[in-house]
């Protein structure tokens, strides 16, 4: 299978996810902030909500579409004893704060299933426990496929470090990534970048948020490497460095080729917060842009519509951004998925020509058919995510697309 992403909204053909498991039940309420959660999650309901989200994906995707569980990919890699040993050495080297060296020999004796259990749940026979990795749910942050290459993220927070090592070993050894194994972009230890800050506008234009999770040096390092791979413009978007807007995709996502949903205070109402980084021979050149909308319209030659997350009411804007109203995931051009609780956002989308369907209506209508490549109907699909929402991530956060097709 090819791996290729040149748009946020082309027809989805393959995506990597993680259905939440016991790791979310291991979150101690007293440590939830340290683990980057605002609340504890009830595992059973979270699993049900996630699996129903996947049913929507499967209904929208073509017959040859694939939904991959990241733990399945990791387990296939861990069948090799050499790969397990390399991963353990990687943890030992990259995560000195975890003191992995004290149990290295014990880890080397683990079978593939038990090593994966240790990585995700942080347990090894009760004698040495790490914190669980509940954020694995948000596979988007682990990497970003851009064209036929992949940016491997580097965690800004210790709580997510094991997850980011997991995607590195998968990208290196899983056959799925064989076609692009020579097209890997990574950054240095002192830098950080996370996939939620990377949005692919086209094969020539990429947006990267400079957030609390993506450092300036990480952004610049990736921008240079993207230019070397043929990307002509990297739009660096400065966003608030705060928990509520931890990534660019928490305040801005694409719903169609020239339509977006944006949180007005941080995107629509902001000026001079965008810098176009473009290749200038040996060096990166830069120029400041007035707004995100201006930058996109100038570089693409298209007119863009920005739909307000939360509608026109300022209170609703803040409330619905808090519950991921701007974090929509496109399954096809003009066909997007988001939490049903963000009602004002869906009303705003209806006012811009989107048909609103709930998850059950959509699955009933499209199961076995998929979204036609020549579909012209715009659809905003809402799904229940009352438990998932507690983790502070929406549909885009919970997906790592690796293949989209224009037809």
Provide structural commentary.
- The protein is α/β, with parallel strands linked by helices and 407 residues long.
- It has a single domain, classed as L-arginine/glycine Amidinotransferase, Chain A.
- Helices cover 29% and strands 21% of the residues.
- The chain is built from twelve helices and 18 strands.
- The protein has helices at residues 22-25, 43-60, 70-77, 81-94, 104-108, 112-121, 161-173, 216-228, 292-300, 314-322, 343-351, 359-366; strands at 11-17, 66-69, 143-146, 149-152, 184-185, 198-200, 205-210, 233-238, 252-256, 259-262, 274-280, 283-289, 305-308, 329-332, 335-339, 355-358, 379-383, 400-405.
- The strands form five sheets. It has a five-stranded mixed β-sheet with strand order 6-7-8-11-12. A four-stranded mixed β-sheet has the order 14-15-17-16.
- α2 (43-60) packs parallel to α12 (359-366), α3 crosses α7 and α4 packs antiparallel against α7 (161-173).
- The longest helix is centred in the N-terminal third of the chain and has 18 residues, at 43-60.
- The radius of gyration is 20 Å and the shape is globular.
- The two termini are 16 Å apart.
């Amino acid at each position: 299978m090819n791996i290729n992403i040149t748009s946020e909204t082309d027809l989805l053909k393959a995506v990597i996810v993680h259905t939440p498991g016991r790791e979310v039940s291991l979150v101690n309420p007293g440590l939830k902030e340290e683990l980057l959660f605002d609340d504890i999650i009830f595992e059973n309901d979270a699993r049900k909500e996630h699996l129903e989200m996947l049913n929507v994906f499967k209904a929208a995707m073509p017959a040859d579409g694939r939904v991959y569980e990241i733990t399945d990919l990791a387990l296939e890699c861990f069948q090799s004893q050499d790969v397990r040993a390399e991963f353990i050495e990687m943890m030992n080297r990259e995560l000195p704060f975890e003191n992995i060296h004290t149990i290295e020999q014990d880890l080397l004796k683990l079978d593939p299933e038990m090593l994966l259990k240790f990585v995700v749940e942080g347990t090894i026979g009760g004698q040495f426990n790490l914190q669980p990795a509940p954020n694995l749910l948000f596979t988007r942050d682990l990497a970003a496929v851009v064209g036929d290459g992949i940016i491997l993220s580097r965690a800004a927070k210790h709580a997510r470090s094991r997850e980011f090592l997991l995607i590195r070993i998968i990208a290196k050894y899983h056959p799925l990534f064989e076609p692009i194994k020579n097209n890997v972009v990574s950054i240095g230890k002192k830098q950080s970048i996370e996939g939620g800050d990377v949005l692919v506008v086209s094969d020539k234009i990429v947006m990267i948020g400079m957030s609390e999770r993506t450092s300036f040096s990480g952004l610049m390092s990736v921008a240079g490497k993207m230019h070397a791979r043929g990307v002509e413009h990297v739009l660096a978007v400065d966003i608030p460095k705060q928990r509520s807007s931890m990534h660019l995709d928490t305040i801005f996502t694409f719903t169609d080729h020239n339509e977006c949903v944006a949180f007005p205070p941080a995107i629509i109402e902001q000026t001079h917060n965008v810098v176009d980084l473009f290749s200038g021979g040996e060096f990166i050149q830069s120029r400041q842009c007035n707004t995100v909308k201006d930058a996109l319209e100038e570089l693409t030659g298209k007119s863009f519509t920005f739909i307000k997350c939360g509608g026109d009411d300022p209170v609703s804007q803040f409330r619905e951004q808090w519950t991921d109203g701007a974090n929509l995931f496109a399954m096809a051009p003009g066909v997007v998925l988001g939490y049903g609780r963000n009602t004002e956002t869906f009303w705003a989308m209806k006012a811009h020509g989107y048909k609103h369907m709930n998850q059950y209506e959509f699955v009933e209508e499209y199961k076995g058919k998929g979204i036609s490549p020549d579909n012209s109907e715009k659809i905003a699909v809402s799904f229940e995510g009352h438990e998932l929402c507690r983790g502070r991530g929406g549909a885009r956060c919970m997906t790592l697309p690796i293949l989209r097709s224009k037809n």
